[in-house]
Design a protein that fits this description.
Bound molecules: flavin mononucleotide
CATH topology: Rossmann fold
Order of helices and strands: HEHEHEEEHHEHHEEEHH
Strand content: 15-25%
Number of helices: 9
CATH architecture: 3-Layer(aba) Sandwich
Number of domains: 1
Strand order of the largest sheet: 2-1-5-6-7
Largest sheet: 5 strands, parallel
Distance between the termini: 26 Å
Length: 228
């Protein structure tokens, strides 16, 4: 199976995507579960981190997933390393992050093994630059390569200056990602790194974690299902 949610085929309604934030939480949870049967999917996640100032929040995201019982692997762009230390990510995820495309963790038997390891690839934060790469289908670094090969659901959490988010190129690129079936979460209105208020702030780590967790049934639901 390629994704949590079936990849959309282009049709008329695709011209008017509605932001995930407008869907009710319950509707979204039901849709994700129905599409995948997540009950039997391993609690694993790959976190991709790109070179945004919001990368300082990546450790909090990893901590949240590890606490929630997820096996977590990280993969960074080279610019991300200017904003968050690989050693911090290694310590919190209990695994060394992948930092370049030659890393043997990425390749196993000449095959992008990580592409099949987890049902979710979460890119948080995602820069305007990286979103453009995804939209163009480039594979010039470890994270863009993995995104191309990834078999499960790709979730993108943009973080950038308001002007970058409003630029027609970014809007077009984000629209392209929606056509690929990627989930786009945020960005939100709030204080940006510049100190200005605008749209471009990454969705808060806790909200991301809760939303990803909702793809899997809760422990209570699992027990209820197993008793049927
Ligand atoms: C201090 C600083 C903060 C930045 N923050 C962002 C950001 O929040 N979002 C963004 O899209 N780019 C941001 N950039 C620009 C990216 O780092 C730049 O586009 C880089 O090439 C992204 O590389 P990557 O997408 O491969 O990680 C920032 C640059 C600097 C110097």
């Amino acid at each position: 199976m390629r994704s949590l949610t079936a990849r959309k085929s282009p049709n008329k309604s695709e011209g008017q995507p509605f932001p995930p934030s407008l869907r009710s939480v319950r509707e979204e949870r039901e849709r994700a579960r129905a599409a995948l049967g997540m009950a039997f999917r391993p609690r694993r996640i790959v976190l991709g981190v790109t070179g945004s100032i919001a990368a300082y929040k990546a450790p909090e995201i990893i901590r949240g997933f590890v606490k929630a019982g997820f096996e977590t692997r990280c993969i960074l762009t080279s610019r991300a390393k200017d904003f968050v230390a690989p050693l911090t990510l290694a310590t919190l995820s209990h695994y060394p992050p992948i930092e370049n495309e030659n890393d043997s963790q990425l390749w196993e038997m000449a095959h992008l093994s990580l592409a099949e390891w987890a049902p979710v690839l979460l890119i948080a934060p995602a820069t305007a630059d990286f979103i453009a790469k995804l939209a163009a289908g480039l594979g010039d670094n470890a994270l863009s390569l993995l995104s191309l090969a990834f078999k499960g659901q790709v979730i993108v959490c943009p973080a950038m200056d308001g002007g970058m988010w409003e630029h027609p190129a970014t809007k077009r690129n984000v629209e392209t990602l929606r056509h690929f079936g990627y989930e786009i979460w945020g960005p939100e209105l709030g204080e940006l790194a510049s100190g200005k208020i605008g749209i471009g702030r990454m969705v808060e780590p806790q909200a991301i974690i809760e939303r990803v967790k909702s793809f899997w049934p809760s422990e209570k639901e699992r027990i209820r299902k197993s008793r049927r």
